[in-house]
Amino acid sequence: MGRRVLSAAEHLRKYLLAYIVIVIILALPIGYYSSNFIKNNKIFIKNLIISLAILTLLPSMIQLRAERFGREASAKTLETLGALVVIFGVGPITAMLLASSLPSKSVSIGFVAANSVPASSASIAYVLLADGNIEFATLLAIISIIGALAAVPAYVGIYARSVSVSVPLGLLGESVGLALLTPFILGQLIRYYLIKYRARTLLKSPDNNFPCKRIHIQSMTLEEALSHVEDALECIEGRIGKSIKPYLSIWTVIAMLLLVGTLIAAKASLLLSKPFLAGEIIGYQIIIYIIIIFSIILLTKALNLSYEDHSAIAFISLTKNESVAAAVSVMAIGAAAAIPAALIPAIQPVVAILYLWSLPKLNHVLGMKRS
User: Fold this and answer.
1) Following DSSP, what letter does each residue of 158-224 receive, concatenated?
2) Residue 126 belongs to what domain range?
């Protein structure tokens, strides 16, 4: 069973883009011919989208090591501030400048929301593949979640007022809190009982079969014993986390595909009546990615960032959790505003993988030091 799950998770990750395209192609005619059902069941569709968005986000919150927050915070102050400028400045502001060219006000507001949300579930995985600074990436991911609680309502509210659309700030704030805090708290509780509590139980058990060092504390000082216990716990937690990761990966992809399909189906009539709308959204998003990449390169030169820190900032900045944007858009604005959140996941993995492939050449050009 373990090998099959691992193989299935790898297959879904490898062909994610293809599956997203297939889902979009299928959802358009299904949504178009089911338009009467969708109109007559708006509340049901809205609640379904919100539920799928939270389900998509939950696995990443289970994997997020919130306990590492303080470990890097004090050591990376300047790098963190620079990263926050890119995450909460460059992306959202560029989105606001481009969004006004979109033909629908609701879609344009959703486009701003889609570029103001925190890092995606895949962000830290890309950092890992790039041999980047995982601890720093975790710090940035947590800060991006906390920062998004203020950034999303602020940017969306400012932009909505600029295009004369009334968006209740209270409802907007509630939607962001529900979309972010609910899965974050639930995910960390699940993580505690699924991983941390289980690790402590296994450490005490004589049947512990995890390949971590056995502890013989009889001849150690108290300080040495505590240090070895913490190392062993971290080792076991890492092994447990690795063993459940394929299951969480499958969960994430399936929930994401269902979410994208539901979002596209809900607004199939709008997309088919404006066939160039999807192309505009994707084109503008690519422009934002290019500007973010150049900003990260400038930041790297200015702060003399290491390769590991550069990789962490790059993937946390480039990959956004569009599930949050979908939930916020549907709750506070309307289903049309969630269209960018449905389309952006079709190109986000491509951009991330291309950047991953280009990192060795970029490292050579920038002369980044290795930690």
Assistant:
1) HHHHHTT----HHHHHHHHHHHHHHHHHHHHHHHIIIIIHHHHHHHH-TT--SSS-----TTS-HHH
2) 2-168+246-366
